[in-house]
Design a protein that fits this description.
The complex is a heterodimer. By secondary structure, chain A is α/β, with parallel strands linked by helices. Chain A is built from 23 helices and 30 strands. In chain A, the strands form six sheets. Chain A has a seven-stranded mixed beta sheet, with helices on both faces. Chain A has a seven-stranded parallel beta sheet with strand order 4-5-3-6-7-2-8, with helices on both faces. In chain A, strand 25 (about 560-585) and strand 26 form a beta hairpin. The longest helix of chain A has 22 residues, at about 645-665. Chain A starts with a helix and ends with a helix. By secondary structure, chain B is α+β, with helices and mostly antiparallel strands. Chain B folds into three domains: about 40-280, Nucleotidyltransferase, domain 5; about 285-330, no CATH class; about 335-415. Chain B contains 17 helices and nine strands. In chain B, strands 1-2-7-6-5-8-9 form a seven-stranded mixed beta sheet, sandwiched between helices. A two-stranded antiparallel sheet of chain B has the order 3-4. In chain B, helix 13 (about 320-335) runs antiparallel to helix 14. The chains are: A alpha/beta, B alpha+beta. The interface between A and B is large, with 39 and 32 residues.
């Protein structure tokens, strides 16, 4: 007799080893569905078609959405995973398209995969209605000869913001008919459009509305979002539409659900070392899987996907009839493989999946029974979204968060209230960020000349146009500014950091070379350097050759007992300090920097034991970037004043960097990976390099400087925000270090021993005292 | 902390010299002042007039190449005889409705960029037509003196295109026509040749002359086919920048050469059409194959088979030979000349053993037309004797074999 989810959870709580590690347990009580009749105005054919698919009455939130949109008002629907949000926009869109033969709609999804998913859904609905509603995806994969047909015939176009930006708006005259009769713009997964990416998308939407006005339409915006704190505010800033209905009360039913927080046990109190989160997640996922409970394990990195997949395959796939029972899923897998895995999850042939947040978005994989979150996903919103992957309409489900030893994780796991009962994060964007704004004004001018008196963003437009005229990009002629450069500006503006030039990972072992996966430019140096072990679905491959210019990595399957982890470090040089002030006897500044990222080598790490079993060297081109940063300067002469050796002083700065990095991401509501960290000299004469700081290599007279830089080219305002909160951050760091019970540093405060020297913690505390002019 | 917008904008522009380079700033100021006060108009370098349109005046240049002159090998007077019968056969869809020579308009644009998209503007549009009154080939060029004059240019262009029943361009399918359509949409005007026949000479030029020339650029074609030599020409890639300089600083001598560049392009375009007609009339030599392929495309198997057969004698490359055999087989089939078709399919199958079409065509012809299922079966079995067929093709062949076996068996063959 197999145990059900309820029994498994109760057993975990009673377990002698695991039970004490549970720092938080709560039960989310079930709630019944709330439905009502279809609102007046929803097309009868659509009502009938939905009836044949078992939808007799919509949920209350779906009805509210349809009423708003059919009344001509924009809405943002904020509802949990799997609550039928697509019907919120499909009800009004399909109704209008059935009633008005010329009406058209544009759907925007953050990824091509989601657009494909929704196309299938729309086609099914159209078939059920017996109507012909030409709907097409339009993206980089659309063949040239199909594109003309899409432009001329599509009633619904499903695309992504990047394609709208580079492939559609610059060619809007060829879409005259489409834009002239555009009635709705659907924006799904709105919460993805945050930070610098969101600021770009807001400007693409400004351009879209401008082009629509030219062709004589004023489409209604329909948005859906996962839970964030300020959905209405983000929707308004993103679309520029003020009159917008917020729909936040979901009528979808909810089944009983357990939520558990697990902190892996301390295995070496002196070193403050905890058992690995992946290891604990493996054991918890195993408890569910061995009882046949469908389980998704979220992990933080692509490498962890491969490691955990391999562990679970080793455990469950020894029986031949279970081959393919557990799968990995992450960005970089080829689309066909991803589709195959999604299907397997829907039809139940795959019981377990290990994924990055690539599966967090609304890709339809059905509902699973258990979710194991390996490491805090970085935000409250992501936590709920990942946890929401578990939970069917009926039956009990469970979501378990396993903390890693990262400071942020340790903070969250010991302060569950930061996730549970805390409003989720703000979705922050700054569409008037000058870098972003000016690049889209260029694109907009290419699309249509700017007229005198026109508005675009909230900076004085004519001043920007005059600046661009001075640069020879625009020409004022009469009352208009025309584009005159021999260039295609949208090509020079990427909405997200992902480089379009992906590396292809090619397996050369077969009779014919075969593309295994793709790797983006940014991760290439750390994941496919020569000698790297690159894993796809748990199968290890060794990189034999990397053709950097050709964007290809040649690999062969191998069976090593280790995987590789690249060592990388960054060297930062100050270009321009925008502002600064003294801070005790140090100094705080922010401004523009040049960042050079280098991968000098890699470590070989043994599976299961995580022992370091060797090193290798790497020789690859450096990655360069201009961005903004905040930095703190600590003159070396202060070491003496603090009674510290130079080595301890530098260790203290490095340790402080570890703490400040993670605290800064908490304060700025960004992911720690949005920021990079480096220790160097204010004048660029020295840098700390990778690993523990070696004071012997530091020339005399340097001014050690700790940098936190933004990992988006050009920056997006995080550095300025951190600079404004310097004092708050330092106070927070002082508090964190004082409260941490480790002896001389641990991953939760200044970093684990080995990464920082033995005196790092004490030194960091004294340094903080110096900056805050307080006795430590 | 927040500096003024101007300062922040300058920070965006990293290519600028650092603050304090006062001389550079003064020089730039001086340059701007000079250029705005002394912008030379276009008529200082190009002889033309300004014609009125409902949307204002537009600068126009008119030149007529007299019938007695030649453009390379092209006697200009020959353009008064277009389209000849050979051309009508070659391009029946495009030239079918043309009554008299002036109904063909040769068009070429010079633009502010080569990328396309809404921000690319045609600043010079040239239209060449035969002028029966003036006994010559008349090229009218319309020039955009400033960007706000575009409606006037488009009005004047519509006038120049009146009575046209075929537009001829070079790569106009991809570039010039979509561009002009865009310009009309953006100015809320209607493209006057909407739905009119359009002959883009790039694909036929490729079929006719690519085998004997190094590439298919217009300059290469006019040199190779018409023996036209340009002197003092402006390279096409420099033209957008020249117009940008004109807008900022005024006209200069080099801009005048853009006008002659555009005129030569249009004359050469007309010359290529004439040369295509000559090749079509007498399909011999290396062009015969191209003529045959074009006839095949125009669904004229009667003409295609002769030209293709002639073209094959010129021993073109393997790829050309395969294309020719495929079209020749289809031409023979369309004419019902089954024995000739079989011979062609045999040769084709020899060149491309893993191609389904020749085998299937031969088997179908033998079975249904020549009533010889035994020989049809032999064709299919011979093909199946080869290893490495793609599974779907093999399945198709096996299916046909089994059916032929039953049929042959029924007849006791």
């Amino acid at each position: 007799m197999r145990a059900d989810v309820e029994q498994i959870v109760q057993a975990m709580l009673r377990d002698r080893n695991l039970g004490p590690c549970v720092t938080h347990h709560q039960v989310i009580e079930p709630a019944p569905a709330r439905t009502e009749p279809f609102p007046d105005g929803v097309h009868p054919d659509l009502v009938q078609a939905l009836g044949t698919r078992g939808i007799e009455r919509p949920y209350t939130h779906q009805a509210r959405a349809a009423e708003a949109a059919l009344g001509g008002r924009a809405f943002v629907a904020v509802t949990p995973t799997a609550s039928g949000k697509t019907l919120c926009y499909n009800l009004p869109v399909l109704t209008t398209l059935l009633q008005e033969p010329e009406a058209r709609a544009l759907y925007l999804f953050p990824t091509k995969a989601l657009a494909q998913d929704q196309l299938a859904e729309l086609q099914e609905l159209a078939r059920a209605m017996g109507r012909d509603l030409p709907a097409f995806t339009y993206d980089g994969d659309t063949p040239q000869d199909v594109r003309r047909r899409v432009r001329n015939q599509a009633r619904i176009v499903l695309t992504n913001p990047d394609m709208l930006h580079q492939g559609i708006l610059p060619h809007h005259p060829r879409w005259a008919r489409f834009f002239g009769s555009l009635r709705y713009v659907v924006i799904d997964e709105m919460h993805v459009y945050r930070g610098i990416f969101g600021s770009h998308v807001a400007n693409v939407l400004r351009r879209l509305r401008r082009v629509c006005r030219f062709h004589g339409s004023e489409p209604v915006f329909l948005l859906s979002s996962a839970t964030i704190r300020n959905p209405g505010d983000l929707a308004r800033r993103l679309t520029g539409v003020e009159d917008l209905v917020e729909i936040t009360d979901s009528g979808a039913p909810r089944a009983r659900k357990h939520l558990l927080f697990v902190n892996p046990p301390v295995i070496d109190p002196a070193l403050g070392l905890r058992a690995s989160a992946v290891g604990v997640a493996r054991r918890i996922a195993t408890r569910f899987l061995r009882e046949g409970v469908s389980t998704i394990a979220f992990v933080r990195t692509r490498l962890q996907v491969e490691i955990l997949t391999r562990y679970l395959k080793d455990r469950f796939e020894r029986r031949p009839d279970r081959r393919g029972w557990v799968r990995g899923y992450r960005g970089g897998y080829l689309p066909d493989l991803r589709r195959q895995i999604e299907r397997g999850l829907r039809d139940g042939t795959i019981r377990g999946v290990v994924a990055t947040n690539a599966l967090e978005l609304g890709i339809d994989i059905g509902q699973l029974q258990a979710a194991v979150l390996t490491g805090y996903p970085g935000s409250v919103a992501s936590t709920w979204q990942q946890a929401g992957r578990a939970g069917r309409r009926t039956g009990v489900s469970a979501a378990v968060l396993v903390a890693s030893s990262q400071p942020l994780d340790q903070y969250v796991i010991t302060h569950p209230e930061t996730v549970v009962g805390t409003p989720p994060e703000l979705g922050l964007i700054d569409p008037d960020n000058l870098h972003v704004l000016v690049s889209h004004i260029r694109c907009a001018a290419f699309e249509l000349p700017f007229e005198e008196g026109e508005e675009f963003g909230s900076e004085p437009l004519e001043e920007i146009l005059a600046f661009l005229e001075e640069k020879g990009v625009l020409r004022r002629s009469g009352r208009r500014w025309h584009w005159i450069e021999d260039a295609y500006p949208a090509e020079q503006v990427a909405l997200r950091t992902a480089d379009p030039d992906n590396f292809a990972v090619i397996d050369t072992s077969g009779p014919r070379p075969r593309v295994l996966a793709q790797v983006d430019l940014e991760s290439a140096p750390t994941t496919i350097h020569p000698g790297a072990v690159y894993m796809v679905e748990g199968q290890a491959h060794q990189v034999e050759r990397l053709d950097w210019d050709g964007r290809k990595a040649y690999v062969r399957p191998v069976d090593p007992d280790y995987y590789t982890q690249a060592i990388s470090y960054a060297k930062v040089r100050i270009l321009d300090a925008f502002a600064g002030h003294d801070l005790g006897r140090g100094r705080a500044e922010w401004g523009e920097v040049h960042v050079l990222a280098r991968v000098p080598g890699y470590k070989k790490i043994k599976f299961y034991t995580s022992e370091n079993v060797g090193y290798g060297e790497v020789d690859l081109p450096d990655q360069e970037m201009h961005t903004t940063a905040v930095w703190w300067v600590f003159p070396l002469i202060l070491a003496e004043a603090l009674g510290l050796t130079d080595a301890a002083f530098l260790d203290g700065i490095a340790g402080l960097g570890h703490a400040l990095h993670h605290l800064a991401s908490l304060h700025c509501l960004c992911d720690p990976s949005d920021l990079g960290r480096a220790l160097g000299d204010r004048e660029g004469r020295w840098d700390a390099g990778p690993g523990p700081v070696d004071p012997a290599a530091a020339p005399p007279g340097i001014e050690p400087t700790l940098f936190l830089y933004e990992r988006y080219p050009g920056g997006c305002g995080l550095a300025e925000g951190i600079h404004g909160r310097t004092r708050e951050l330092l106070e927070g760091a002082l508090e964190l270090l004082a409260a941490c019970r480790c002896e001389s540093g641990c991953p939760s405060c200044v970093g684990p021993p080995g990464d920082v020297g033995p005196e790092a913690k004490a030194a960091a505390q004294r340094l903080l005292g110096l900056l805050l002019l307080r006795a430590a | 902390m927040m500096k003024g917008l101007a300062a922040r904008l300058r920070r965006l522009d990293r290519s600028r010299p650092p603050a304090g380079s006062a001389l550079r700033e003064r020089l730039e100021r001086m340059d701007r002042a000079a250029s705005s006060s002394r912008r030379a108009p276009i008529d200082r370098f190009v002889v033309g007039d300004r014609v009125d349109t409902p949307a204002g005046p537009v600068f126009r240049v008119v030149r007529t190449a007299p019938a007695s002159k030649a453009h390379g090998r092209l006697p200009v007077g020959e353009l008064g005889r277009l389209p000849c019968e050979g051309l009508r056969d070659l391009f029946p869809r495009e030239l079918g409705r043309v009554g008299a020579p002036p109904e063909i308009a040769f068009l070429d644009t010079e633009t502010t960029g080569l990328a396309g998209g809404a921000g690319t503007v045609a600043f010079l549009v040239g239209v060449g037509r035969w002028d029966p009154g003036g006994r010559g080939f008349r090229v009218v060029q319309l020039f955009l003196e400033d960007l706000d004059r575009e409606p006037a240019l488009l009005h004047a262009l519509a006038r120049e295109l009146e009575g046209v029943s075929c537009l001829v361009t070079f790569n106009g399918h991809r570039f010039d026509v979509p561009l002009l359509e865009n310009r009309h949409v953006l100015n809320r005007m209607a493209w006057p040749l909407e739905g009119a026949p359009h002959l883009d000479l790039l694909p036929p030029a490729r079929a006719l002359w690519r085998p004997t020339l190094s590439n298919c650029r217009l300059v290469t074609l006019e040199a190779g086919v018409l023996a036209v030599r340009r002197t003092g020409d402006v390279p096409g890639a420099e033209i957008p920048a020249l117009y940008g300089r004109y807008l900022r600083h005024g006209a200069e001598e080099r801009l005048g050469r853009v006008f002659s560049h555009n005129r030569i392009d249009i004359l050469s375009l007309a010359g290529l059409l004439w040369a295509a007609g000559r090749a079509a009339r007498r399909p011999v030599g290396p062009q015969a194959l191209g003529v045959g392929l074009l006839h095949a495309q125009a669904r004229r198997p009667d003409r295609a088979h002769r030209a293709l057969a002639a073209g094959l004698d010129h021993a073109p490359s393997r790829g050309d030979r395969i294309r020719a055999l495929r079209e020749l087989g289809r031409a023979h089939k369309a004419r019902g000349d089954w024995h000739a078709a079989l011979a062609v399919w045999q040769e084709w199958a020899g060149l491309e053993p893993h191609r389904l079409e020749p085998v299937e065509e031969a088997a179908k012809a033998l079975e249904h037309r020549l009533r010889d299922p035994g020989r049809a079966l032999a064709w299919v079995e011979r093909a199946l004797g080869l290893p490495h067929w793609p599974p779907a093709d093999r399945a198709a062949l096996e299916h046909r074999r089994d059916r032929l076996r039953r049929k042959a068996g029924d007849r006791g063959v």
